[in-house]
Design goal:
Length: about 425
């Protein structure tokens, strides 16, 4: 069954955790011990109803405060599809957690409180979804039971968000009026909203078909490990192991070895099931080539005709995650890009992105915790990369503090189109 990765987003108390809890509960994807624990905590809180949010809010601080702090991943399946749900925080101070949870998502599930409409955090999370290159957005206008299931409340919110998502160039989006608490339009169609006839959330997610973007992408294969058997019997064997970041490779295909630019021919492709004639994106394989070339961890095998860019200087959008320090020009850090690690210096901070107004500042002296900006980085070794808009795998990176070994930033190479 096809896997769909979903990240939730929305303002505080819009009902993200309750919605996921309802999806899991109604699709019977809750283990008995988790269900018992949530019921006990509901009784401790003297809740008038079973608190579905407790099925995802696992941290003690989350249950005490009634908010989401960390990213909670939940896995479930229906007869039609498998799902991975990332419940991400709504608070501004946990923007970095939202970026982490949404970085691998195919779909963003944006939840909006019908009583409040589009608020600052709704806009913020829609912008982050666009920054991260999420291809499809499903907007759940929640708590319709508290506004009398009114179509007159639903339509203006739908119109406002439609305009915002078009401005962010997210053309693929869908709107559903729901009540996560009561279960309206989550798994079963709601009898309270006969004016809405496009079906509930879960069947929509089961049938959602995302465009296949893999067949047009050029081949990219970051080398993770060089295999050289110790036995003399296989002294001529040399294979390059890793996971294909994009595209397809076939036996007999001419490829380039980056950053050197040397070309060679693929002689064999080995998968966990044995030798295969071809392999494609996300497959872990070992590739053997015709020539003895200088290839080590961090190198990249690529299409010979559509090669990635190679440079020591890159422009990128980053979300700063460092709690103890801010990012300033001249800072020295380590960059982890695909399987390659190098030292980088922050040449300049071009601007700070105001993701509430979808604009940039004229100047920027530093980036603080959870702030997002455009930077120029210069690395000690050439980086082999694509723009993030074209390839998530070869266009993303993290920055690491050399003294503490903490991950202090997540980055996307290039500049988002909607910023101009």
């Amino acid at each position: 069954m096809e896997l769909l990765r979903i990240a939730t987003a929305g303002s505080v108390d819009d009902g993200k955790s309750t919605l996921i809890g309802r999806l899991l509960f109604d699709s019977k994807a809750i283990y008995d011990d988790v269900l018992d624990s949530a019921e006990r905590h509901s009784r401790k809180q003297s809740s008038e109803y079973f608190n579905l949010a407790l099925l995802t809010d696992g941290l003690r601080a989350e249950r005490e405060q009634g908010i989401t702090i960390d990213v909670a991943y939940r896995y479930f399946a229906t007869p039609k599809r498998k799902f991975i749900l990332a419940d991400t925080p709504g608070h501004v101070q946990y923007t970095r957690n939202m970026v982490t949870g949404a970085s691998t998502a195919d779909v963003a599930l944006v939840i909006v409180d019908a009583r409040h409409g589009v608020v600052e955090q709704s806009r913020r999370h829609a912008v982050i979804a666009a920054l991260l290159g999420i291809r499809h957005v499903v907007v759940c206008i929640n708590k319709m039971d508290l506004v009398g299931y009114s179509e007159e409340v639903f339509r203006p919110i739908q119109s406002d968000l439609h305009a915002l998502l078009q401005e962010l160039e997210i053309e693929s989006h869908h709107f559903i009026p729901i009540s996560a608490l009561q279960g309206d339009n989550v798994v079963e169609h709601s009898e309270h909203m006969p004016w809405y006839d496009e079906g509930p959330l879960l069947p929509y997610l089961e049938q959602l078909v995302l465009p296949d973007l893999t067949h047009d992408k050029p081949f990219r294969f970051p080398v993770q490990y060089v295999i050289r058997p110790l036995s003399n019997e296989f002294h001529d064997y040399r294979g390059y192991a890793g996971t294909i970041a994009s595209g397809t490779v076939k036996v007999g295909q001419e490829i380039a070895v980056m950053p050197s630019g040397a070309t060679t021919i693929v002689t064999a492709i080995e998968s966990p099931q044995g030798e295969v004639s071809s392999a494609s994106e996300k497959e872990a394989v070992t590739i053997r080539i015709a020539d003895n070339l200088d290839i080590s961890r961090g190198a990249m095998l690529s299409s010979a005709t559509e090669r990635p860019r190679t440079d020591n200087t890159i422009d990128a959008t980053i979300c700063w995650m460092g709690e103890k320090t801010s990012l300033k020009p001249g800072a020295m850090l380590r960059i982890k890009h695909t399987t390659h690690t190098a030292r980088v210096m922050v040449n300049s901070l071009q601007c700070k992105i105001d993701i509430n107004q979808i604009s940039v500042t004229g100047s920027c002296e530093e980036l603080r915790l959870n702030e997002i900006g455009q930077v120029t980085l210069r690395s000690s070794e050439p980086l082999v990369y694509d723009d993030y808009a074209g390839s998530r795998g070869t266009g993303s990176f993290i920055l690491i503090d050399e003294t503490t070994n903490d991950t202090v930033a997540a980055g996307m190479i290039g500049r988002p189109k909607f910023l101009g």
